[in-house]
Amino acid sequence: MAKQLTQNQQQLDDLLAASFNARNNEPQYSTYEELKWNDKPLYCPDDLELQHMDLNDTVGGGIVSGAADEDMPRRSESYNNNSVPPPPPPPCRIPIHAGKTALLIVDVQPEYWSSCPSVRQDFPHFEENLARTIDIARKQRAKIIWVRADYRKHHSPWLIQFERLNRGQRPDTIVELPCEPDSDEFKWEDFATPEGGEAIIAKSSWSSTSNTALMDILRASAIDTVLVCGLITSVCVQHSAFGVFEAGYRTLLVQDACADRGRARHEAALALYGGYMYELITSVELLDPVHGLQKAKPVWITVDDTRGEGIKRRGISMTLGEEVFENRPNAGSSVVSL
Asked: Tell me: the pLDDT tens digits for 104-145?
């Protein structure tokens, strides 16, 4: 066992090193440091105030009189100064539990990748990174949801203005894009194709949460965390991540499994919203044995018969994905009440 763990750690270290070297060998682009969320909050206690707060907690609350009060600067002096605050430390990484996690793959289809050179040119490792992300999610048994664009004027009213603004401006900008699985033109990318049991939904706008079944799928599957990846970073990926975040889900963007029409647009989107609206993670970091995507475990689900008029007995069983969950409590397992 120890030998296997050592080998796994070595493989992870090798992948991290390879990822670092690949990024260093790519053309360097602006990381938009000036756009990143580094402002100090309206009130941010300094070290002395934190010590004072700890002292209050130690003695059971209340105001501690004496020298500590005299030495402690007033709040107005602490945060209403003109000094430039240091950037905040990165948030503590919380493990990702696959049993409550969905991987949302947005618009990975030929129209936005293999037939879109303006996206492909700056993201030579996108295919590899996305394939790794999907493979990890499948092995760890996270729920996988694919999203396809279905843009038609009769149900996508925004297309009229989009066409007015973009017609003829960019050669690979598509206006109407119907989603018709039975047509000969309907294809998936070889490196990103759904497998049996994985959900596929079509969206009529830039957001995967608007007028789709996505929220219903997440609720029915007891999901609380969503990994978002795909195309295009600053457009449909961003809008989808915003919708998921706004609905209250922990949202993480797999940044190296996304791509845009140019590296600058990709980096600008991440600089604006990474660490502010969603967490940023890489496909390699999903392999981390402590803070990465942890393998799913069985989940026991209880049905509260006082909340459903149609339930006549307690022995209810439910099927989520490929696993059957019953309402019998089990030590060591998570319990979700519906």
From this structure: 999 999 999 999 999 999 999 999 999 999 999 999 999 999
CA–CA dist 38, 87 (Å, integer): 5
Of 166-175, 207-216, 251-260, 310-319, the one with minimum mean pLDDT is: 310-319
Say which residues have a Cβ less than 8 Å from residue 326's Cβ, sequence separation at least 6. Answer: 300, 301, 315, 316, 317, 318
Q: Is the separation of the CB atoms in 166 and 235 below 8 Å?
A: no
Residues ≥6 apart with Cβ < 8 Å to 337: 301, 302, 303, 304
Spatial neighbors of 256 by CB under 8 A, at least 6 apart, are 19, 125, 126, 129, 282, 283, 284
Compute how many other C-beta atoms are within 10 angstroms of the C-beta atom of residue 89: 6
Q: What is the pLDDT of residue 133?
A: 98
Q: How many other β-carbons are positioned within 10 Å of the β-carbon of residue 16?
A: 15
Contact status, residue 269 vs residue 233, Cβ threshold 8 Å: yes
- The residues, any chain, with a CB within 8 Å of residue 34's CB and separated by 6 or more, are none
Instruction: Please write the tens of the pLDDT for every residue from 179-193.
Output: 889 899 899 999 999
Question: 177 - beta bridge partners?
Answer: 151
Burial 232-267 (b: 16+ CB within 10 A, else e): bbbbbbbbbbbbbbeeebbbbbbbbbbbbbbbebbb
Query: Within a 10 A sphere around the Cβ of 121, how many other Cβ atoms?
Result: 12
